[in-house]
Amino acid sequence: MKRPLTRPPATLSPSGGEGRGEGALAPLLAFGAHPDDIEFGCGGMIASEACAGRKIYFVICSHGEAGTHGKPKQRIAEAKRAAALLGATIEFLKLDGDAHLEIRAAHAIKLAKIIRRIRPGGVLAPSLVENQHPDHARLGKLVRDAARLARYGGLKELRSLTPHKIEQLFFYAVTAEAEPRDITPVLIDVSGPEIIATWTAAMKAHASQMSTRNYVELQLTRARLLGARAGVDFAIALFPNEPLVFASLAQAGRGARRF
Ligand SMILES: [Zn+2]
């Protein structure tokens, strides 16, 4: 049985975000190092959250200009199309450029500024596993630092914006190799056929990236495998940066293993 599409998000807190009404869904803010990272890493979960009525923002920190396929203009257009399919607002941020990203306080402050402007409940970043495109793990570290800086009241570069505390920081893995082995994932059920269709379309929007490998089938297979482990058709793994706090055990979902 497929679950209905309109349901409250199961794992991302609907609370949070100062100034929002009680029960309003605080936005979800996802950072990507390259134009396709978010779609391939966790696009099914994005489709699911958007479907539940959540505002979604993408911040892409390069134009993918170091890639073998696709010129920046095409990659920007593909990313915009994919974001539109997923119901996300997208913006591009210039840092050091594709394959040149460095860990710098100034970058973390730039990202913190975006967090203060958008005031998300949940933030998503690429995982910190080193053995992947170097920009992925570096951006993950920068976002983790930014989430902290966004709440510090005394930073002069951020003074024009009210400090903001996010509720959760999750890492996504762009490929299976980037899944952290030392963090138990939270599995998000994305089995709804409309969600899978939307996610697939968003991945296919990155047409320039399809010439070397069938990345769409790779990600769908990954989600099928995770789903099979969890007793659903498709699931996406997110890796929390710290333990999650629930008001009661009843809110904690269920275990992936059916004992
Ligand atoms: Zn990437």
> Reading side by side through the largest sheet, how are the strands ordered?
3-2-1-4-5-7-6
User: CATH superfamily name?
Assistant: LmbE-like
Helix content: 25-40%
Described by strand count, sense and barrel closure, the largest sheet is:
7 strands, mixed
The count of β-strands is: 7
Q: Would you give the CATH topology?
A: Rossmann fold
What are the SSEs and their pairings?
Elements: E1 28-32, H1 37-51, E2 56-60, H2 72-86, E3 88-92, H3 105-118, E4 122-126, H4 134-149, E5 168-172, E6 186-189, H5 193-204, H6 215-230, E7 235-240
Parallel strand pairs: 1-2, 1-4, 2-3, 4-5
Antiparallel strand pairs: 5-7, 6-7
Helix pairs in contact: 1-5, 2-5, 3-4
Structure description:
This protein is of the alpha/beta class. The chain has one domain: LmbE-like (Rossmann fold), CATH 3.40.50. Helix content is 34%, strand content 14%. It is built from six helices and seven strands; from the N terminus they run βαβαβαβαββααβ. It has helices at 37-51, 72-86, 105-118, 134-149, 193-204, 215-230, and strands spanning 28-32, 56-60, 88-92, 122-126, 168-172, 186-189, 235-240. α1 (37-51) packs antiparallel against α5 (193-204). Residues 1-23 have low confidence and may be disordered. The structure holds zinc ion.
